[in-house]
Amino acid sequence: MSKKIMVIDDDPAVVEYLTTLFEDNGYETCSAKDALEGIDVARQEKPDLITLDLEMPGEWGPRFYRKLTEDPALKNIPVVVISGLSGHQYAINKAVASISKPFDRDELLQVVKENIL
Amino acid sequence: MAEDLLFIEPDENLSAALSVYIRRQQFDVRTASAAEAAEASLSKQIPDIVLANPSLPDYDGTRFLLDFKSKHAETPLILLTEPGDLESAMEGFGAKADDYLQKPVKSIALDISLQHARQHLRLTRKFFRYARQLEDLHEAHNLYHQLFDEVPCYISVQDRQFRLTATNRLFKRDFGNEVGDFCYKIYKHRDTPCPECPVAKTFADGKRHQAEEVVTSRYGRQYNVMTWTAPLMDEHGEISQVMEMATNITQVRRLQDHLTSLGLMLGSMSHGVKGMMTALDGGVYQLETGIRNGDAERIQNSYERIADTSSRIRKMVLDILYYAKSRGMQYQTTDAARLAKSLADAGSEMAEKQGLAFHNGIDPDTGEFEVDPDWFYQAVLNFLENAVDACVMDSDKSGHRIDFTVAPQDADAVELEIADNGIGMDEEARRKMFTLFFSSKGSKGTGLGLYIANQIIGQHGGGIEVESVYGEGTRVKIRVPRHRTAAARAVDSLLSPHTDSEDGKKDSN
């Protein structure tokens, strides 16, 4: 069974890009446009990896991460931060990787491959 | 110092004898026995004192000596006449000679006369020295006064009560000729002394102090000034007054503010730019893989993605350009309904893409108004885009719609209204919505759009009213006068550095 990646980003264009890219590389995907929706989708879909944008309306990426780790069923899902904010690598310490927008496709796919459960 | 004395006497024996006597009185003596020799001696150096017999063998002695005296009035002239010539000499010289002696000369008379000449000489020299000093002083005074007036700073001198006792030209130009009034009243239009006054500190400790202040000129214009103070001492070394020098740094501050916000903008913008570049990458990726796999749907999708992203980038760049370099408005009499129609077209296209209903109610007889069509279009488009975004962000209800109405408000104004039943704003968002760099749109917002829209409507002399309820929707009313008011013109001239503002004229003086 193929692995599932969840994409959280408030920009639908970026969500579409990431899901297309992952699907093209043999992954299943699901997505959420903000942190609030993200938790629900994660509970439902049980993804194997999450990519997370930091700055979104409503709730910030770091808060989403805290909520995620408070849920025993979700807390072990690896999170890859993909953000345009400078200093994003410090925002979530336990993220398995931090990637800057705009990103290099091969680098992202490599990081995903290495970290997916 | 021994005075240099020229002794003109044809009788060489007498001359030699008297010279010895005079030298003993501490004079350097030169002698000449005739006008020709005297002339030669004078041409070498002008003596301090001339002792002369006017009866000369080779020339009219009276004429020769009067001629000399007319050129060198300050040199004492003592006449030593032949016996019986005294009266005629007095007639000939009058007051031009300083003293008269007659042969045979008594030593005491010669002594007294030489003493007088010496005293006279010293007094004269002192007098000339003082006169010169006075002249220098006068010149220096003028120079300082000129400096005081011409220095490109506001200078004032104040007493302990902060009363102005002297002000320079620039001060008078911008703050009036109000000597005797209080500094805080003139500079800050206050009734009491300012806290942290540098002048008060200098009175207290005698040191120089510095402060940055905002002052208001007599024309109501605000200036940022950098102020330095220095104590002025009286003859007892006590601080009697304090001088305050204020340099106008308004231009520098303005530039600094502009640069600061530009820097701030670039910082906040770079995040948005990165997001857009990522979206553009996505479009390119889809195009690339779509072509490779012959997937027409994916190619179509990538085209839409790229077109959408490029229009977002275009809008952001335009916003940045507007902010970075505010151009002057180019007003034209414009048909309001026609401009509204093109706005409605753009709005309904945006709405359609998101599956929203767009209704417009444009009164074709709205009439004309005086606007800059390009900027006005941009400003209103911003509100339409926001209405669309507000509907898209609202996931709690369906059946979203946007209503765009344009109608004449009265003979003097046109009213545009944009209403949506989207997510709405809470009180805080509504208060901050026109603030620079405020955005509730996450990575999509730059915080520039409404700030600029508000500025543009303001420059048109118009007003914006916003009603919004969180979860229910937003109604924006834009009221624009048909003709630009004098106030709008004034605002325009202040905002636009390219037009010849009053400020510019004043500064070029």
Q: What is the total tally of β strands of chain B?
A: 17
N-to-C span of chain A: 13 Å
Q: For this structure, what is the CATH homologous superfamily of the largest domain in chain B?
A: Histidine kinase-like ATPase, C-terminal domain
User: Largest sheet of chain A, if any?
Assistant: 5 strands, parallel
The proportion of residues in beta strands of chain A is 15-25%
Overall 3D geometry of chain A? globular
Instruction: Please give the CATH architecture of chain A.
Output: 3-Layer(aba) Sandwich
Helix content of chain B: 40-55%
Please give the order of strands in the largest beta sheet of chain A.
Answer: 2-1-3-4-5
Task: Work out the count of structural domains of chain B.
Answer: 4
CATH superfamily of chain A: Response regulator
Strand content of chain B: 15-25%
Which two protein chains have the largest interface (Cβ within 8 Å of the partner's Cβ), and how many residues from each? A-B, 23 and 26 residues
Number of helices of chain A: 4
List its salient traits.
heterodimer, A: 117 residues, alpha/beta, Rossmann fold, five-stranded parallel beta sheet, 5 strands, 38% helix, B: 509 residues, Beta-Lactamase, five-stranded antiparallel beta sheet, 17 strands, 50% helix, 22% strand, rod-shaped
